[in-house]
Amino acid sequence: MEKLCVRTRQNDDGKFLVDWAWRQGASYENASRAGIVTVTVTDEYQEDRAILAELRAIYLLLEEQSIHGENRLGTSMTIEVSAGAIRKTLAKGANKSAGKGVTSKNHVARASNFLATKYFEAQIVVGRWKYPTNVKEVRDFETTFDRYPVCSVYFDVIGEDVIITRHAMLRAIARVLMNNPAPDENDLTALPDRWWATAWRWFEKVGKAGSEMRVANVPERKMAMMVRKYQCKPIVLHMPHTQAVLILKKTGYGTKVLTVLRADEYNTNILHVPKQYGQSLRKA
Q: Same domain for 132 and 15?
């Protein structure tokens, strides 16, 4: 299994230096790539600045630099971090049931969402940093933590990037991707991690659906119900040839998927579309 190892320390100028190494195999002495990511954390973020810097460095290495390979998720990867709070917020069992980790540090949870969605399969462990003595390539970077890092998928139908949330991943798995809907959609702890990679790839396909996806025209009275339920006026996306309805919300930091519904649940509980029973239609 391949491993990304990081260690964070603060420099005299207030910036954070995140040592990193990409290792293939069990040896800590050898690394195919390694270096330092210098991270500036803006004054807006005052708590756990070293942890935020470490997460920003991991995001840069995986999402922006693709040190693990292009178009790759967290499969067969271990990320060795230096802060226990990162491991807690990414605890597999808690995320599979509650859609969140076990840390009380909300800012750490928000900063690690990209690891809980696109890179869910990666194993997160707390390790003790060891300098590699045999490095094939040294690469240094510099970046700034001035917003929470996110992983998104471009949706053709609305022409913008859409953030995939932990909750949306859970609902897509339980309500759409499983052949039979999960008996308890709030507890997916029995499912293997690979389902989360499947969910991410499904969202990528949804984003490219083009004409197969449409923005639903929700009647005004029904939209008022949805506004009360979701505390916003959502964008409703429907794929008629599948059982999927996506509920999106515009926020100050981007549009995100709030949840995923089955089409029959959407029609019954929100639109109250009549259902066919034998030769007659009855109100749902």
A: yes
Q: What is the CA radius of gyration of the chain?
A: 21
Q: Rounded to whole angstroms, how far apart are CA atoms 78 and 70?
A: 17
> 């002495």: which residue's tokens?
29
The alpha carbon of residue 276 and the mean position of all alpha carbons in its chain are separated, in whole angstroms, by 38
Per the structure, the complete domain to which residue 75 belongs is given by: 2-145
**Whole-prediction pTM:** 0.90
Q: Are residues 126 and 179 in the same domain?
A: no
Average pLDDT over residues 59-74: 96
Question: With left for phi above 0 and alpha for psi between -120 and 50, is residue 216 left, alpha or beta?
Answer: beta
CA distances from 230 to 132, 200, 227 (A): 49, 23, 5
Q: Measure the CA–CA gap between 218 and 271, rounded to whole angstroms.
A: 8
User: Sign of torsion, CA 179 184 186 187?
Assistant: negative
Element (H, E) at 58: helix 49-59
Digit-coded pLDDT (tens) for 37-51: 999 999 999 999 999
Choose the final residue of a domain: 145, 167, 190: 145
pLDDT score at 243? 77
Cα gap 117→79, rounded to integer Å = 15
Q: Tell me the pLDDT tens digit for each residue of 132-161.
A: 888 999 999 999 999 999 999 999 999 999
> Look-up: residue for tokens 């964008």?
235
- 36, 132 contact by CB (below 8 A): no
Structural domains counted in the chain? 2
The CATH number of whichever domain residue 229 belongs to comes to 3.10.450
Cβ atoms within 10 Å, residue 36: 17
Task: Tell me what percent of the residues of the chain surpass a pLDDT of 90.
Answer: 72
SS (H, E, C) 24-81: ECCCCCEEEEEEEEEEEECCCCCCCHHHHHHHHHHHHHHHHCCCCCCCCCCCCEEEEE
